[in-house]
Design goal:
about 250 residues; alpha/beta; 11 helices; about 15% strand; globular
């Protein structure tokens, strides 16, 4: 049975003290959210240890926003999956559209990152999605299929128990645009169909697929009402505890 999850991606926002206060506010407000809804916050690397101390032993799980594609060694500035795990994380986000766009992350690199994350006991939120040009050219299905298959073909049905997929219509991130609930559901259902072809019906049914395109309290309920949308990967709205929890209350 797949789980509903609302995950907040703070991106490059908040100082460490601000992040600690935000985590405390999320934790305090989390009591309102039904137990069957998972809550995850993804913070900058600098925040992981102090935020882990805030949420340790609670229902709020902690994620990194990325991890290295190498195990360890002379890779100045990189942060490994083992480091993230030791800081108190349960998850890492991989393949976010901003990582792909600004830092040239490839599907091949994401395979390596995902392998290391899983090997270190982390769950992965794997992001896929098309940009505006690809959407307008009618290539959105092909783009999402390629990103999904290029990475997940290297993993087993058993591995999928630790992988969440987040569909990001890149054209709806930070633009104020939002895919309609029907547009989002169409792609989510398509991704679930790909998983069925790759891993079988049970894995497809059990895999959580999140929507990650300008989801906010005002539109979350309509999105989450769709049968293949299992929650959200929340950007800007996750920087206010009230908004983040408001989204989690939208199921």
């Amino acid at each position: 049975m797949r789980k509903n999850i609302v995950a907040g991606n703070w991106k490059m926002n908040t100082t460490v003290p601000e992040g600690v206060e935000l985590a405390k506010a999320v934790l305090e407000a989390s009591a309102k959210v039904p137990a069957e809804v998972g809550l995850v916050i993804a913070t900058p690397f600098t925040h992981l240890c102090p935020v882990a101390a805030v949420v340790a032993g609670t229902r709020v799980e902690l994620s990194a926003e990325n991890c290295a594609d190498k195990e360890k060694g002379a890779y100045t500035g990189e942060v490994s999956a083992a480091m993230i795990k030791s800081a108190g994380c349960q998850y890492t986000i991989l393949g976010h559209s901003e990582r792909r766009q600004y830092y040239g992350e490839t599907d091949e690199k994401l395979v390596e990152k995902t392998k290391l994350a899983l090997a270190n006991g982390l769950k992965v939120i794997l992001c896929v999605g098309e940009n505006l040009e690809e959407r307008e050219a009618g290539k959105h299905f092909a783009v999402v299929e390629a990103q999904t298959k290029n990475v997940l073909s290297q993993f087993t049905a058993e591995d999928m128990a630790s992988i969440v997929i987040a569909y990001e219509p890149v054209w709806a991130i930070g633009t104020g645009k939002t895919a309609t609930a029907d547009q989002a559901e169409e792609i989510h259902a398509y991704i679930r169909g790909l998983l069925k072809d790759m891993f079988g019906a049970k894995v497809a049914d059990d895999t959580t697929i999140l929507y990650g395109g300008s989801c906010k309290p005002s539109n979350a309920a309509e999105l989450f009402a769709k049968s293949d949308i299992d929650g959200g990967l929340i950007g800007g709205a996750s920087l206010k505890a009230e908004d983040f929890i408001g989204i989690a209350l939208s199921f």
